[in-house]
Design brief:
Shape: elongated
Radius of gyration: 29 Å
Distance between the termini: 58 Å
Low-confidence stretches: 1-18
Number of strands: 12
Mean pLDDT: 88
Strand content: 5-15%
Number of domains: 3
Strand order of the largest sheet: 1-2-4-3-7-9-8
CATH class of the largest domain: Alpha Beta
CATH topology of the largest domain: Aminopeptidase
Number of helices: 18
Largest sheet: 7 strands, mixed
CATH architecture of the largest domain: 3-Layer(aba) Sandwich
Structural class: alpha/beta
Length: 534
C-alpha cells in the first residue's frame, strides 16, 4: 500500500512539502488522527497502533518510528540491541500546539530518513483527545460536563470528566534512606494549583490512575524498556528535570541530557523543580523505571490556548531536532545494572545498579532478581536452560562441581573454579592431571573465556596426541596454532561447540551455566582416549 501511494505521488508530481502538516492550522482530534494514518500509509518507517478509546470514544494512537532496517519483537519488553524511547504530548487539552508539533516532527524524521538503526521512538502525540477537542470547539454536548461548574472550555486542561491527567498518575517513590515506599499522590505544595472537585484544571481524580486515558498510558509506559522519556507541555519555554525524591546520580544524568535540549531550543532550566503537585507522567516514569524523564514546556505565552502563528512556528523550529538528538545522547549514556528483575511470566522487566533497590522493586512488584553482568536477557527461560539446571544439580550430587551460584548462573566462572571442578572430576574418573605452566598462569585470572577453557581441556585430554582436521570458524584466524588446534579438538569431541554463524567466539566469557554443561559432558565421557587420528 505504501509503495502504491508513493508511485501515485510520483505520477502526479506531488511534492513532499504540499503534504507537510501546517503547524498554524487547528486540527480536530479526528483530523489529526487521519493525518497520522496518512503518514503511516506513506512512510515505511511509521507504524500506528490504537491503544484504546477515550470516554467519548476517540482513539488514542501511538506511532512507532524507526529505521526501515530495524526489526524487533513487539511482544517483548526488552529486545537486545534495540533502544526504545517514549514521547507523550497533548495530555492537557488547551496545549494545542504540541500534538501538531510532534506529528510534524515525526513527518520530518521519517521523510528525511533520520532515525538510526536499532532505535525506536514511540510517540503518543495526543493523549487527551476529549479535552483537546473541548478546548478547540467548546460546544461539545455530553453528560460528562453536566455536573462540572467550570465552563471555561478554551482554558480546559483536563479530560472530559474534569480530571487533570497529569495529576492522575500513581506517585509512589522509594525512600532510599529506609528503603520504604512513600505514596505522595495528591501532594500539593501550592494550593493555587489544586481543585478538590472536577474542573478544567488541577483536579487529581477520585484515585490514582482512575481515568481511562491514564490507564492506557501507564500500560504503554510499562510495555517496553525505554532509555528515556519526554513529556511535551506548553507554557514557559522551560525544562523541568529535577526529581527531589531520586538520588543524585539520577538527577545528574537528567541534567546532562537537559543540556543537549537547552543547546537546541534555548529553554530555561530552573534550579527549583517547580513541581507543586504530584501525579505527573515524569514522576511516574522516574519512580517506576528510574529512567531519565524530562518535561519540555514549549511557547512563552501564558494565554493558552490562543497562540499567534509565529509562536507555533517558533515552537516547532526550536524543537524539531530536540527529540532525536537527546535520544541519541541518551543511547550513548545508557548502562546496564548487574541486578536484573523478571516478572511472573519470566520476562525481563528492569535492571538496577544497587542490589537493595532491586530487591525493593522485586518485593513490591512481584519480580525475581537475577545477578549478572551486561545486557539483559529477554526471558527467564533464556537466562538459564532446563538442561543447565539439570546438569548443575547432577554435578552437585556427584560432589564434582565447585561453582558459587549465589550470584546466578549467568555470571562468569573464574579459571580457578573451573580447574578446581576439573580436579574433582579427575579424582572420580581419571588419573592425576599434570597442569602445563600456561594453565597454571591462566588460573590466576578472574574471568575465563572460551579459548581458555578449550586449551585447558585440550591439555587435560592429551589433545596434542591427535591429528584433527581444521574447522572453518571465521573468527579464529588470528589465534596462534596451538589455540586453533585446541578449538578443533574440543569441538570435534563435542565438549565446546561453535555457533550457527560459523563463529566460535573465543573471547566470550564462559558463564557458570555453560561451564556446568561442559563439565558434565566431560564427566560422562567413557575415557580420555576419545579419538582416533582423523
Amino acid at each position: 500500500m505504501k509503495k502504491l501511494i508513493s508511485i501515485i505521488c510520483l505520477l502526479f508530481m506531488v511534492s513532499s512539502t504540499s503534504f507537510a502538516l501546517d503547524i498554524t492550522k487547528d486540527y480536530s482530534a479526528q483530523a489529526l488522527n487521519e493525518y497520522i494514518d496518512d503518514l503511516s500509509d506513506t512512510y515505511d518507517e511509521i507504524d500506528v497502533e490504537i491503544l484504546g478509546n477515550s470516554y467519548l470514544g476517540k482513539p488514542i494512537k501511538v506511532i512507532q518510528l524507526k529505521n526501515i532496517s530495524t526489526q524487533y519483537n513487539k511482544d517483548t519488553r526488552y529486545t537486545q540491541g534495540i533502544d526504545h524511547f517514549l514521547v507523550i504530548g497533548g495530555i492537557h487539552g488547551r496545549e494545542r500546539v504540541n500534538p501538531k508539533l510532534l506529528v510534524k516532527q515525526i513527518e520530518y524524521y521519517a521523510k528525511n530518513k533520520l532515525i538510526p538503526e536499532n532505535m525506536v521512538i514511540h510517540y503518543i502525540p495526543l493523549a487527551n483527545p476529549d479535552g483537546y477537542d473541548l478546548s478547540l470547539f467548546e460546544g461539545i454536548a455530553t453528560d460528562y460536563l453536566a455536573d462540572i461548574a467550570d465552563e471555561n472550555y478554551p482554558r480546559w486542561k483536563s479530560n472530559i470528566r474534569g480530571v487533570d491527567l497529569n495529576r492522575n498518575f500513581p506517585d509512589i517513590y522509594l525512600a532510599l534512606d529506609e528503603m520504604t515506599w512513600i505514596n505522595q499522590w495528591g501532594r500539593v505544595d501550592n494550593h493555587r494549583y489544586y481543585s478538590d472537585e472536577p474542573s478544567g484544571e488541577f483536579y487529581f481524580g477520585s484515585f490514582a490512575g482512575s481515568e481511562i486515558e491514564t490507564q492506557l498510558l501507564m500500560d504503554y509506559m510499562n510495555r517496553y524498556k525505554y532509555e528515556m522519556f519526554l513529556d511535551y507541555h506548553s507554557q514557559g519555554e522551560v525544562l523541568f528535570i529535577n526529581k527531589w525524591f531520586m538520588p543524585n546520580a539520577y538527577n545528574e544524568k537528567n541534567s546532562a541530557l537537559a543540556e543537549i535540549i537547552k543547546g537546541l531550543n534555548g529553554y530555561f532550566v530552573p534550579k527549583d523543580n517547580g513541581e507543586y503537585s504530584s501525579g505527573f507522567t515524569t514522576n511516574y516514569m522516574a519512580n517506576r523505571h528510574r529512567i531519565p524523564s524530562i518535561t519540555i514546556e514549549t511557547t512563552r505565552t501564558r494565554n493558552l490556548p490562543y497562540l499567534r502563528d509565529s509562536e507555533e512556528i517558533k515552537a516547532y523550529e526550536e524543537n524539531k531536532d530536540v527529540t532525536l538528538k537527546v535520544f541519541k545522547k541518551a543511547a550513548e549514556l545508557k548502562s546496564f545494572g548487574n541486578f536484573k528483575t523478571y516478572d511472573a511470566n519470566g520476562s525481563f522487566f528492569d535492571d538496577y545498579v544497587d542490589e537493595k533497590i532491586a530487591k525493593a522493586y522485586a518485593k513490591r512488584y512481584n519480580l525475581k532478581v537475577k545477578i549478572y553482568e551486561g545486557q539483559p536477557l529477554q526471558h527467564l527461560d533464556d537466562f538459564v536452560s532446563a538442561w543447565a539446571v539439570q546438569s548443575i544439580k547432577e554435578l552437585i550430587s556427584l560432589s564434582v562441581l565447585n561453582i558459587d551460584l549465589s550470584k546466578g548462573y549467568q555470571s562468569h566462572i573464574s579459571v580457578e573454579d573451573f580447574l578446581d571442578s576439573l580436579e574433582r572430576i579427575n579424582k572420580v574418573r581419571y588419573e592425576e592431571y599434570e597442569q602445563p605452566d600456561i594453565v597454571k598462569m591462566l588460573s590466576k585470572q578472574e574471568k575465563m573465556n572460551r579459548i581458555q577453557a578449550s586449551y585447558i581441556l585440550y591439555t587435560y585430554l592429551d589433545g596434542e596426541n591427535y591429528s584433527i582436521k581444521p574447522i572453518d570458524f571465521k573468527d579464529i584466524g588470528s589465534l596462534v596454532e596451538k589455540y586453533k588446534k585446541a578449538i578443533y579438538f574440543v569441538n570435534r569431541i563435542g565438549l565446546i561447540k561453535g555457533y550457527s554463524e560459523h563463529e566460535f567466539k573465543p573471547l566470550n566469557p564462559l558463564t557458570k551455566e555453560e561451564a556446568a554443561i561442559i563439565l558434565l559432558r566431560l564427566f560422562r565421557m567413557e575415557d580420555k582416549g576419545v579419538l582416533k587420528d582423523e
